[in-house]
Amino acid sequence: MFTPQAATRAVPRVSIRSWLRKRYRGPWPPVGWVRFGGLRRTRPISQVFGFDRGLPIDRHYIESFLQAHCQDVRGRVLEVADSDYTVRFGGDRVLRSDVLDLTPTPRSTIVADLQVPDSLPADTFDCIILTQVLQLIYDIRTAIRNSYRALKPGGVLLVTLPGICRICRDEEGRWGDCWRLTGRAARLLFEEQFPAGSVSVATYGNVLAATGFLYGLAVAELKRDELDAQDPDFELVVSVRAVKPGTS
Questions:
Q1: pLDDT, tens digit (0-9, with 9 covering 90-100), for 9-40
Q2: Is the pTM higher than 0.70?
Q3: Parts of the chain with a pLDDT under 50
Q4: Contacts of 182 (CB under 8 A, 6+ apart)
Q5: Are 154 and 66 contained in the same domain?
Q6: Strand (E) positions, 43-150?
Q7: CATH code, domain carrying 183
Q8: How many domains does the chain have?
Q9: What is the pLDDT of residues 132-158, one digit of tens each?
Q10: Checking phi first, is residue 39 left (phi over 0); if not, alpha (psi -120 to 50) or beta?
Q11: Within 25-182, where are the H helices?
């Protein structure tokens, strides 16, 4: 009976893999042949998503999404916790930058909770950037309605959400990690508030990128083609672009 183990005794080691590929009819690589190397561990390589190693893998997709829609970052822009992406992707198109936080900080200009109805001023912002925020809000529907209300007519909501991701914890206990969404779930949620045709959803990732991200590897540790390969069965990051009807 042919087995990979028997083949190793009959074929010179230098050609064993190519010989097996031609003759072996089972799953490839054969069971027991996978080598995990530095990934054979039960703890991640980085405990902070890869920030201590460079740019985290999910940020590659988040920033690619924002770059693709940088023209939306204009006028009065609201971002959560800081204004880094507003400045980076909006540049001189931004007339006023606001920072939203749950509690007053040196950077915050608006202190509010997105899951409290009407906690943001209505018809105010040309663009709202919510990157990796909504998964931390239990009442996600209210947060979406609140964001919709705060946009000017014609304003744009730019959102990213984790699909495949470790749990994010707040040591101060101000918030908790509540949700992981698929692209389908994100579309259905946002189309409850935004009209049909005004919501665009995209997903990013593949099994290698997802595995690397869970281990805490950085972007520099994967090749560009490995990062850019898209497999819809491995949604590492989900992005949403939603436009409020009307013109500003």
A1: 555 555 666 766 677 777 777 788 788 889 99
A2: yes
A3: none
A4: 163, 203, 235, 238
A5: yes
A6: 75-80, 94-101, 110-111, 125-131
A7: 3.40.50.150
A8: 2
A9: 999 999 999 999 999 999 999 999 999
A10: alpha
A11: 57-68, 84-90, 140-150
